[in-house]
Amino acid sequence: MWTKVTEIVLLVGLVTPESFNNEWSTHIPGGVEAAKKVEEDTGCQLQYEIIPGENLYLFLCHHVRRRSTEPHEETHKTIEEHEFVSQTEQQKVKSRNRRQWGRGFGGDNENQYGGGITVTQNG
To answer: Which of 9, 35, 95, 116 falls between 20 and 30 A from 62, CA-CA?
Structure first.
């Protein structure tokens, strides 16, 4: 019985659903003036140029739920089909694991930095 429970727990742990937020990264070759026009036409707020000089902009769409397990197809289509947009992608929520200080990765040589690395100071 415990083997079955362990298998189920391991399988559930491996399946983590994607989560989408209400931001889109968008490539607009026409620059900031074209990005402002996309903002006006789509109802999404132009935030900033993600990579300066690359015409890659971040848009925040307040009419889309902040987090969702499903992408927002209607808004994506509206942005993607805009005449000034060459490419767009709805952003996914990133999951980050917190470091556990004092808990390492195994081994007898562990210290507070984990992994068996010993930090020494000369002098």
So the answer is: 95
For residue 19, CA distances in Å to 2, 30, 47, 66, 68 come to: 31, 30, 21, 10, 5
N residues, the chain: 123
All residues at 6 or more sequence positions from 48 whose CB lies less than 8 Å from its CB, including other chains: 57, 58
The helix-helix angle for 73-80 and 32-42 (nearest 10°) equals 140
Note the Cα 103 to chain centre separation in Å.
Answer: 27
How many Å apart are CA 101 and CA 23, to the nearest integer? 33
Strand, coil or helix: what is 112? coil
Q: Say which amino acid occupies 53.
A: G
d(CA 44, CA 59): 6
* Identity of the amino acid at 83: E
The pLDDT tens digits for 34-68 are 999 999 999 999 999 999 999 999 999 988 878 77
